[in-house]
Amino acid sequence: MLEAEIKLALDAADEARLRERLAALGATRAATHRQADTYFAHPVRDFRRTDEALRLRLDDDVLRVTYKGPKLDPPRKTREEIEFPIDADLGVATTLLERLGFRAAAAVRKRRVEWLLPGPLPATISIDDVEGLGTYCEVEVSAATVEEGRSALADLQRRLGLDHLSPIADSYLELLARHADDTP
């Protein structure tokens, strides 16, 4: 299975519209999380060039390791994702990766509210308040093919009343890096 996802920047009106549509569609509020992501640079491969990512995510009190493969269908973020929890302290996990030659490259912090939307391809809708960036919506489904993911995401964007917004291909990490470059 592939993770198919779109990211949309929200202003206050879009966020209010989205919350109304989620209620009307019968979405269930699943959880609110505080997430702190530390991204790592590979010792011999440039993840920016290969469009990959390795991160440690502290999601409330659960630590996860995530590998994200290259995007297969920009601006949608359909890609292979391998993620698993580890029973370790963030400092210990960071030290292990550093001993293997990885180095911490950047951090992303956000408050995430997740909603579950039933349907033929169940979806997770997240409203993220990202430190230093603003508010975004991520719509995510699991799909067997790129085409199935693309179709499901287009339908969901329309059903959520957000079809006037253009999907953003960049990750929060890439957006923060660009924002830092633009700040005098």
Sheet with most strands:
8 strands, antiparallel
Number of helices: 5
* Measured distance between first and last alpha carbons: 42 Å
Query: What percentage of amino acids are in beta strands?
Result: 35-45%
Name the average pLDDT: 93
Counting DSSP E segments of at least 2 residues, the number of strands comes to: 8
Describe the model.
There is one protein chain. By secondary structure, the protein is an alpha+beta fold. The chain has helices at residues 12-24, 47-50, 90-99, 146-159, 172-182; strands at residues 2-9, 28-41, 53-59, 62-68, 81-86, 103-117, 123-130, 134-143. The chain has an 8-stranded antiparallel beta sheet. Strand 3 and strand 4 form a beta hairpin. The model has no long low-confidence stretch (mean pLDDT 93).
Secondary structure elements and their pairing?
Blueprint: E1 2-9, H1 12-24, E2 28-41, H2 47-50, E3 53-59, E4 62-68, E5 81-86, H3 90-99, E6 103-117, E7 123-130, E8 134-143, H4 146-159, H5 172-182
Antiparallel strand pairs: 1-8, 2-3, 2-6, 3-4, 4-5, 6-7, 7-8
Quick description:
With 184 residues, this protein is an alpha+beta fold.
